[in-house]
Amino acid sequence: MTINPVLVIFTSHRIDCLKLCLNCLEKHTNLSIFKSIYIIANSVPLPHLLLAKDFCKKHPNAHVISCSPRGLVPAVMKAFNDIIEHHKNDVILKIDEDVFVTNNWIESLYKCYITHKERDDILLSASLCPISLSVYNTYIENVMRNYHEELFLKYKNAKMNFDANKYLHRYVWDSIINHDMENNFSNHYSEDYLYVDNITINCIIFDSKLISEVYPFPIEIDAATGFGCVDELSINRALHGRRVAIPKYPFVHHYSHWRSEDYMRKHIPVSDVRSFLLGNVSGSIHMSS
Description:
Layout: E1 6-11, H1 15-28, E2 36-42, H2 46-58, E3 62-67, H3 72-86, E4 92-96, E5 99-100, H4 105-116, E6 122-126, H5 133-144, H6 149-156, H7 166-178, H8 181-188, E7 193-196, E8 203-206, H9 208-214, H10 231-239, E9 243-247, E10 253-254, H11 261-267, H12 270-277
Parallel strand pairs: 1-2, 1-4, 2-3, 6-9
Antiparallel strand pairs: 4-8, 5-10, 6-8, 7-9
Helix pairs in contact: 1-2, 1-12
């Protein structure tokens, strides 16, 4: 089955992450396979916008969509809705600016999508991102106990969820860079695919089955909560007991959840992640208590 999907990239304030995101896409993906590539640039400064436009100059199927004000609701969701309106019958792949793809990521994700697209109990597919609340809680934690168990238990028992636990963020990256966690993870699980009941939508692929249930994404602020019903919340609400399929290999890396970003930038800067992912130098992150 030949797929020519649409790729949508969200970007707002992490220009160094976007640069690495685009570099990894160019290294590990034949970008001409995409019907269109859209970079939704949300209230970005000029250097950030120029980076996105330079990428588009190199790839004629790529386009920048600028939107404001800053925030998923209403600006980004309105831009995303406009894209979906033009591609309701296409396969859509969405990633965030701080997501870094790896070798064979697209082939693995395609195979997962094709394998599950006709199953009624699967609504969409996603790449395996270790820095992900849903994937960590369901799968990564079981493997993490093999590394620095005492330190793991200390951070695991901290009174905070994974997305806000900056120490576990750092600990996962240490295991990825210094302890071959990807290979250990692959050996730990014999199944080709993993399944989760909710998803952090850092790198997802979906089609009209999901679109029919979530489009259009709401662009109003909820009066009761003061927040918008963003795409991730809409997608998880749509699952209704169905699941998300994830190939166990390869990892696609998510830098950090926003609550842990400042700590991560201090202890594991994006430049170190770049060196590890692009093969310039071997990584070295030293954990301490």
